UniProtKB/TrEMBL annotation:
Assigned keywords, A-Z: Transferase
Protein name: 3-oxoacyl-ACP synthase
GO BP term, example: fatty acid biosynthetic process
Organism expressing this protein natively: Actinophytocola xinjiangensis
Family designation: Belongs to the thiolase-like superfamily. Beta-ketoacyl-ACP synthases family.
Top-level taxon of origin: Bacteria
Amino acid sequence: MSWAITGVGAVASIGRDTDEVFSALLAGRDGLRPQRGFDQTNLNASQLFEIDDRAGGPDRPCRATGFLLDAVAEAVSDAGLTDLTGVPVLVGTGLRELRSVELWARGAAELTTDQLHFGTALRERFGATDTHTFANACSASLYALALGTDLLEQEATDTVVVAGVDSITETMFGLSDRVQLRPPAAVRPFDDGRMGTILGEGAAAVVLRRDTAPRAPLGRVRAVAVNCDAYHSTAPDPDGVRAAIVAAHRLAGVKPDDIGLVVAHGTGTPLNDHVEAAVTREIFAGVATQPLFAAIKSMTGHTSGAAGLLNLIVALRSMTGGQVPPITGLTDPIVEVRGFPLPSAGPLPCEATVAQVHAFGFGGINAVAIVEVGA
């Protein structure tokens, strides 16, 4: 069974819609800039992949909600929908509107508790009456996707909107700053010289429908596999990652030979990249033609709750457009990814029709989606 993707939307530091984001990725442009949202005095790091929406003014509340509304609006329009009354809207996030709470606590913003719930704005903007928010760390949006496909499979609905979003908070930036005492100058996924990750802001959304879709789909979700191995608070467990990939293949009815593109989580941190690459190499050992191996966080930063769906949209656009974006900053690939076709020097041609999409989060929250085009 598979589910039609009839609309997509994306917002990131490199673009305010899907076309802008993907064009920037193909061009190798990143959105890394000096952070502007909060005081720098007690911080080591000074850079973020921020969305520049403050017009030079001070920080303001409900920015994550604004990103979410923009991504959902694009996806809904793309799908030809005008009203989301009764349509389930599932939102994955890591931080929700925590930045708004920080501003309120310091007397820098006035807000009500209703404004902290994405459902309030979704109802006001789209008439959405059935909204749900899930906090599953950096796997949140693919977890929401898994729940969306469950609703379709159980015939609970014919249409579901799935989204992911995060804006950067001072609390999360400070945590990252203390964990990485030497701030990385860039995010370099799967490079031997990688030093860590840098946070990013973003949102992504997709509209899924059963086979009654009124228009030709952009692609299809074959399966989403999720697990929580609870191995460690931050360190990934190879067994948990492997189990998620194997389960995704089984649920989708595919073999490693069928996969032409892997869009990796690729945080640029030493341990996460090592584990993800080593398990992926093991999964595809013995395959005659290795899949393309892509990663986008060198240009978008780590967008947390939006990361999985951004990867999925990149997989779709790469397969339909015939080009996969480069992994910028990749000059000395780690041994685990050598042998995969790596777009390190620029975009590579992409003839894949089936892609594997990763999102792995703290606490061993693992999610893997299998998507296809042309079916």
